[in-house]
């Protein structure tokens, strides 16, 4: 099977390509290189990881997000139609559905509520693909993951680990949230199963996540256990914490409103639709096991 991964140089792409290379002929293509569209011609499967994620430093414009998350999706689709490829797997984001938090498990049928340029542009890419007429013999599967983590991850979890590593008192213990995550091992497993079973799957949107959710306090507890570090929990007033996060937006501090929302709000994702489509009862790696493996990579 000839598989082309677009945007394979990032954390997710590097892990996915290494995983797939044991059973498939995998090529990575950068959309920055000239003639990338011709490289797709002989692909059996195209996996699109290209996109612009959250801009914590505030340097990106609205145009930057829509170029990466919508315009390039259009170009990729057009190349997919012209190629011999039978399947396009497009990696979107749960942010295209919800970013502010939710008190219920998110389903694919829920009303969308993106709030940032990132979420809105990701949704624009989805809408374009969903509105296209796909020729017989071709399929488009759109996946919405929450935060993906694993060895090599440099996202929010690395900031949390520094709090534990340097024994900084944990200031957000008053927040009792639940969030879905996705370990890179489960991400790779889902992609491989889709490749195997795509002929009987629908062209539609699927949510992908670990089977259980975790609170930020539970993650801190796991980090302390794995790193063998002890530190205090403190209950700072929520208004004070929000003020610090807003200041972080202005000064470029590690804690800003986007990261605070990720660490304190509820955002649980139902993965029942994808598991039913793939005929699996549970994913191979539990949420605790996945977080533990990521923490161990930070220590190494």
What is the rounded Rg?
Answer: 19 Å
N- and C-termini, Cα separation:
35 Å
Q: Runs with pLDDT <50, length 5+?
A: none
Structural class: alpha/beta
The overall strand count is: 8
Q: Count the DSSP helices.
A: 11
Largest sheet: 6 strands, parallel
CATH topology of the domain at 2-154 and 180-213 and 270-284: Rossmann fold
Mean pLDDT: 93
CATH class of the domain at 2-154 and 180-213 and 270-284: Alpha Beta
Shape-level CATH architecture of the domain at 2-154 and 180-213 and 270-284? 3-Layer(aba) Sandwich
**In the CATH hierarchy, what is the superfamily of the domain at 2-154 and 180-213 and 270-284?**
NAD(P)-binding Rossmann-like Domain
Helix residue percentage: 40-55%
**What percent strand?**
5-15%
Strand order of the largest sheet: 2-1-3-4-5-8
